[in-house]
Amino acid sequence: ETVLTQSPGTLSLSPGERATLSCRASQSVSSSYLAWYQQKPGQAPRLLIYGASSRATGIPDRFSGSGSGTDFTLTISRLEPEDFAVYYCQQYGNSLSITFGQGTRLEIK
Amino acid sequence: QLQLQESGPGLVKPSETLSLICIVSGGSISSSSYFWGWIRQSPGKGLESIGNIYYSGTTYYNPSLKSRVTISVDTSKNQFSLKLNSVTAADTAVYYCARLRGSVYDRGYFDSWGQGTQVTVSS
Predict the structure, then answer these.
(1) Could you tell me how far CA A18 lies from the centroid of its own chain?
(2) Judged by CB atoms within 8 Å, which residues 61-80 of A form the interface with B?
(3) pLDDT tens digits, residue range B10-42?
(4) Which residues pair with residue A106 across a beta bridge?
(5) Does A102 touch chain B (CB under 8 A)?
(6) How far apart are the first and last CA of chain B?
């Protein structure tokens, strides 16, 4: 099973700043199969990025994803108040196996 | 617009079976482009994939839960279901159903989620 480790656990930033979230895999992940989600309290996760770098429908272009192999990054170029939430990466492996990272909490500084 | 809605008991006794249904509307569960999955989230914790199913009945289960999980699909009712037996307090969580992209060239991520349902295991 591929383990995803996200860092930092908590990121404290101010609106307007740039956020960089990391997701590291225990073994190589196909870029096609790495996704990012945003979750706000009391809500289901929302797909942000799939295929490591493709934005989902309706996602603002301040969200971008990059990376390959075992290291992936989610970047939010200029934080808006609504961006403060928990972010998860997720990988898809052989035979439909799916694992999530433990999450990064993005909080207002 | 696709909608998924989980339903089932909010309280289950220890050692009994947790049963949930996900009703899919606004799209066909028999589409060849998708799988359908269950994910759970324990209090204050992250997301855990439980398993996935294709409309044909092909399944994948998380190895850590495989011995206790059954996921099935009913294409006539456009719904799929989850059964988790021998539950303990550790199975207390919010349970989500979701659509998993599964075509050859576009797969491996959940693009639509239900709102989630809280299931508590307690006597």
Answers:
(1) 14
(2) none
(3) 999 999 999 999 999 999 999 999 999 999 999
(4) A11
(5) yes
(6) 39
